[in-house]
Amino acid sequence: MRIPFIAGNWKMNLSVKESVDFLKAIKGKLPDPKVTQTGIAASPLFLESMLENRGDMPLIIAAENCFYEDEGAYTGEVSPKALAEMGVTHVILGHSERRKYFNETDDIVNRKVQAALRNNLIPIVCCNETMSRRESTDRISWVVSQVTNALKGITTDQAAKIIIAYEPSWAIGSGQTASPQEAEEGCYLIRQTVADLYSDELADGVRVLYGGSVNDDNAQQILQQKDIDGALVGGASLKPDSFLGLANFLQNK
Ligand code: 13P
């Protein structure tokens, strides 16, 4: 059984102090992690204090990115080795904003996935889809190729640990969420691609998240879809109340 996962992606928002205030506000209000897992991906500046202030809360603390080398002369980059050493367990890789503003290619994403796994970090690999792609005929091959390229050289055991997110860039931060059917279609396609690359059994266990303008109002319908195992949430994860509303979606059904 796939446990739903609600992950916030704070992007370049909030401050260290605000991140601690956020944790105080959600203390004692998260769901049982056997029912729904929850996590927040935050700036590397916040991670140490968030890990300290998490206490015994069942909240996964994730990074929003890491580099593909463990250490060296890479000014400004975030080491996957150092992230793992400090207690971070998950890392978002290949987010559409990284691809768009920092020219991350499928090859770079693949190297980062390998680096994360080498350091026992669980990658949350994002696949995007622009509106022009959505309307074009190669739409399916575009999503399939992102998954295939991200997983190049990844063994079956490693692939079983990975989380994949379908995040159409036209739905990110736009308030224009994909319909539940569109979101399901993207997540189904990702799961089928994993099945083709590995096996039906492995694909059946891999969690696939949807991301793009998810909020309290639209989450129930999206999260009911067969191949959607949770959400990667930007804007609506910045406020404790809306994050908690999403985190507790099963209880609020
Ligand atoms: P929004 O929820 O703000 O659309 O952002 C989605 C996202 O990019 C999560 O990674």
Description:
- With 253 residues, the chain is of the alpha/beta class.
- Strands 1-2-3-4-5-6-7-8 form an eight-stranded parallel barrel, surrounded by five helices.
- It contains twelve helices and eight strands.
- The model has no long low-confidence stretch (mean pLDDT 95).
- 43% of the residues are buried.
- The radius of gyration is 17 Å and the shape is globular.
- It has a single domain (5-247), classed as Alpha-Beta Barrel (TIM Barrel), CATH 3.20.20.70.
- Strand 3 (59-63), helix 3 and strand 4 form a beta-alpha-beta unit.
- Helix 1 (16-26) packs parallel to helix 2 (44-54) and helix 7 crosses helix 9 (180-197).
- 1,3-dihydroxyacetonephosphate binds next to strand 8.
- Residues 9, 95, 167, 172-173, 211-214, 232-236 line the site of 1,3-dihydroxyacetonephosphate (13P).
Strand content: 15-25%
What is the structural class? alpha/beta
CATH class: Alpha Beta
Determine the number of helices (DSSP H or I, runs of at least 4 residues).
Answer: 12
Q: If strands are numbered along the chain, what order do they take across the biggest sheet?
A: 1-2-3-4-5-6-7-8
Helical content class = 40-55%
Q: Just name the CATH architecture.
A: Alpha-Beta Barrel
The backbone outline, from C-alpha atoms, is globular
For the CA atoms, what is the radius of gyration? 17 Å
- Elements, N to C (H/E): EHEHEHEHHEHHHEHHEHEH
The overall average pLDDT, rounded, is 95
Query: CATH homologous superfamily name?
Result: Aldolase class I
Query: Which sheet architecture does the biggest sheet show?
Result: 8 strands, parallel, barrel
The span between the termini is: 19 Å
Number of strands: 8
Instruction: Estimate nothing, just give the exact number of structural domains.
Output: 1
Q: Ions, cofactors, ligands: which are bound? A: 1,3-dihydroxyacetonephosphate
CATH fold-level assignment: TIM Barrel
